[in-house]
């Protein structure tokens, strides 16, 4: 009978865990579904990927989801969200990786700090009516809009 192999030392365990996380880190992002008084939706078009998306991006180290959402809105669109805004859900983004998650906030009150000027990241930002969404609006974006505005069943997946 073979003896069981000894369990790894604490240092080895920490090293193995660190390497696994380095190879496949979990990522966390935020998106904001911003609605104006006419129930139009704010969408952005990036310079580096095709399609129209809800504004958002990654959560920085030491940053809360809410802080990231507020920062991304300001950076991408010059929109300043005003409370109350609500966390609608957290989704697994299987298209990106099995470890990518996106938190979606709904923002109904805001002010525009300045007009958006196209830059190296955001080519276009604007409000669109539900019946006039750009053809290139991504499926995930359309699904989130349907959940919030049309009462579609909420998915666990982005």
CATH H-level homologous superfamily name = Nucleoside Triphosphate Pyrophosphohydrolase
The biggest sheet, with number of strands, parallel, antiparallel or mixed sense and barrel status, is: 4 strands, mixed
Q: Looking at the structure, what is the overall shape? A: globular
Let me know the average pLDDT. 90
The total count of strands amounts to 9
**Overall number of domains:** 1
| Cα-based radius of gyration, to the nearest Å | 20 Å
Highest CATH level, the class: Alpha Beta
Strand order of the largest sheet: 4-1-7-6
Share of β-strand residues: 25-35%
**Secondary-structure element string:** HEEEEHEEEEEH
Q: Could you tell me how far the N terminus lies from the C terminus, measured between alpha carbons in angstroms?
A: 50 Å
Can you offer a commentary on this structure?
- This protein has 158 residues and is an alpha+beta fold.
- The chain has one domain: Alpha-Beta Complex (Nucleoside Triphosphate Pyrophosphohydrolase), CATH 3.90.79.
- Helix content is 25%, strand content 30%.
- It contains 3 helices and 9 strands.
- The chain has a 4-stranded mixed sheet.
- The longest helix has 14 residues, at 10-23.
- The protein is globular, with a radius of gyration of 20 Å.
- The relative contact order is 0.22.
